[in-house]
Amino acid sequence: MATLTGETEVQKFSSAATTRPLRILAADDHDILRRGLKQLLTARPGWEICAEAKTGREAVSLAEQHKPDIVVMDVSMPDLNGLEAARRIHKVLPKTGIIMLTLHFSDQLVKDIVESGARAYVMKSDADRDLVNAVEALANNRTFFTARAADMLLNDFSERNAAPAVPQPPTPSRLTSREREIVQLLAEGKSSKEVAVALGISVKTAETHRANIMRKLQLHSVSELVRYAIKNQIIEA
Amino acid sequence: MPRVLIVDDHTFIRRGIQSILKSSPGWECCGEAENGIAAIRMASELKPDVIVMDVSMPGLNGLEATRVIHEAQPEIKIVLLTLHDSVEILRSGFDAGAQGFLLKSEAEYELLRALASVVKANNIYISPKVDAADARGVLREFSVLH
Hints:
By secondary structure, chain A is α/β, with parallel strands linked by helices. Chain A contains ten helices and seven strands. Chain B has a single domain (3-142), classed as Rossmann fold (3-Layer(aba) Sandwich). A six-stranded parallel beta sheet of chain B has the order 2-1-3-4-5-6, with helices on both faces. In chain B, α1 packs across α5 (107-120) and α4 (87-96) runs parallel beside α6 (132-142). Chains A and B meet through α1 of A and α1 and α5 of B.
């Protein structure tokens, strides 16, 4: 293994019999999609699916258990969405490459993906063309973004450096990790009591988080929160 | 052996369905299409026994493609595939000429049953997770047409 910096190692994952398998965790709430994903990826010699997850929470738990080289994760999943799961996985396993799969392209989503710690973004409609390249890139310690996403990130970086700082409106990244988790659960239709049970916190704490979320995001009703969650791809429409 | 045409704009879904069909000796995948226009053309060329048709596709969606195919080739059975448990889509699907309605969340376990139901048993198929009252209502509405 060649060491490029003092802290990182580059390991070549290839079809050569002498290298160890590239271990991939696949996370998507649709069984049939995971089956297709598995079929695509395991066709490559030396690549194996070491675990499969149906929810973001399961993905985090399995990632901690299996320590995969790569995680391929749908952005929209129930219980805990892919972005939040990516943040948590990146925190405990910073060397694990994370690829986000999404139905839609949006500038904000690309930014959110980068901020979550993921290093690649592939649209499901282009997966046949892009996913294998994305896995190879991450396996060799590179990032993978389409030209459109890369242009957007570069323009955003340039604008932020050129313009004077202005107060930013509340965005998901301004919420705490717990708050983002609660936004999803509320938008999925759970009551404060159900949120409390799901997260193992008191109802009073859940209600306090809820009030803070509504205040930070300047929302006044659950329907506004649901619209917010859909717009920011915290849940699927 | 019944021949299946797979229509979905997402590669993973097409691959997943193909994988299920390959694992079952009773079905043959005869082709794939990634949009409604291609589905119409391939249905005409390949004359499959059944089409697994995604509802939401760019350009011509699955409902419209179903309508066109059912009018031109009513002998072809069509199982709609959708993310959404929606009574409107259910109703529109049967109105367009589909015989099956399968939720993507259940496709892994229900696909073969859905295909057997519409092709071999010549029955209507609706995913078990669809609200029973909605399903009954739509079936009553269309029972004279199928």
